[in-house]
Sequence to fold (134 residues):
Amino acid sequence: MEIQKIISELQYKAVRSSGAGGQNVNKVSSKIVLTFDLKKSNALSEEEKALLEINLSTRLTADLILILNCDEDRSQLRNKEIVTKRFLELIRKGLIVQKPRKETKVPKAAIRKRIKNKKNISQLKQNRRKPDLD
Fold:
C-alpha cells in the first residue's frame, strides 16, 4: 500500500455544513466530503481491493465508492486533514487479515463446575418452597 499514491487518488469536495453556526454557516463551505473509488484505484493490488471490499462492505456504495464526511472544525483545511487521517486509518484496518479461529474443547472441569452450580441453585430454590404436608 503506497500512501502517497492513494492520497493522490482521493477526491475532496467542500460543502456547506449543516446545523447551528450563525451567519457564517450560510456563506462558508467548511464541510469536506472525501470520495475514494476502490474499483478504479491503481495504488492497491487486486488482492488488497478484494480484502477491502469484504472488510469495508458496510461502508462502500454499490459502485464500490467509499464516502467520508467531516464537519468537526470550522476550518476547511483542518477538516480535510481529519478526514484524510480517518480514511488512512480505515484502509489500514481494512487490510488486516484476521487469523482463523481455532476451535477448542470445553474443559471437563468447567463442565463439572457449571453442573455443580446448577445443582446448588436448584437445591436453594427447593429449600425456599413451602413444605408439603401431605
The chain has four helices and three strands.
